[in-house]
Amino acid sequence: MKDLGPASQILGMQIVRDRKAKKLVLSQEKYIQKVLRRFSMDKAKVVSTPLAMHFKLSTKQCPSSDDEKEDMKKVPYASAVGSLIYAMVCTRPDIAHVVGVVSRFLSNTGREHWNVVKWVMRYLCGTSRGAVSWQSRLQKCVALSTTEAELIAVVEACKELLWMKRFLGELGCAQERVKQKTKKEKLSAYQS
Predict the structure, then answer these.
(1) What value, to the nearest 5°, has the Cα angle with vertex 127 and ends 81 and 56?
(2) pLDDT digit string (tens) for 126-156?
(3) Which of 164, 173, 169, 174 is nearest to 17 (CA)?
(4) E strands within the chain?
């Protein structure tokens, strides 16, 4: 057996470890850039959301005539959706909803469905250095104000940070301090 040194890549993800700074970074930036180049979306205009409100996908947008179906067979829809699924599973859960939506139309793809896939790629074009950990879920209690909702979110974020700190400690990347940025004025208003 031969020691190849520290791992730098696994399953399309780059591994960057800086022992001095006690940092471990997993990134799919290169994979995402490769996917964007493959579908000629690497120079596309960037968008800020994974799915725009004006997209209303349905089976009514599926091709009905033989000509439309033949035309859509030339579009690499399944391959593009598969690439998005892999990115979603590994490091990009922020596109999970839209990938689930576009996956419903793999067997009968319409032009609007392809436009949504290209929209997601435009989103990835601007956010290929996305976060490692995030969550989005319905809060268990009903907040009476936006400030209270933000406070609940900050508490959940702090729980996640503490978990991440312990996890990194187990990996040998112990963190001395954890910084949580908040809107101080809103929190202080809530406390008074």
Answers:
(1) 50
(2) 887 656 566 666 778 888 998 888 888 888 8
(3) 173
(4) 9-10, 13-18, 23-27
Most confident of 111-115, 169-173, 187-191: 111-115
Residues 158-171: tens digit of each pLDDT: 888 888 788 777 76
Handedness of CA 67, 69, 72, 74 (dihedral sign): negative
Gyration radius from the chain CA atoms: 21
Distance of CA 69 to the CA centre of its chain: 31
What's the number of CA atoms in the CB half-sphere (13 Å) around residue 94? Answer: 18
| pTM check: above 0.70 | no
3-state DSSP assignment of residue 91: coil
- From the centroid of its chain, how far is CA 2? 36
Residue spans of the domains in the chain: they are 29-126, 133-191
User: Would the pLDDT of 189 be above 50?
Assistant: no
Crossing angle of helices 146-170 and 184-191, rounded to 10° = 110
Q: Which residue has the higher pLDDT, 87 or 136?
A: 87
**Burial class of residue 87 in the structure, from the number of CB atoms within 10 Å of its CB (0-12 exposed, 13-18 middle, 19+ buried):** buried
Rounded to 5 degrees, what angle do the CA atoms 55, 57, 59 make?
Answer: 160
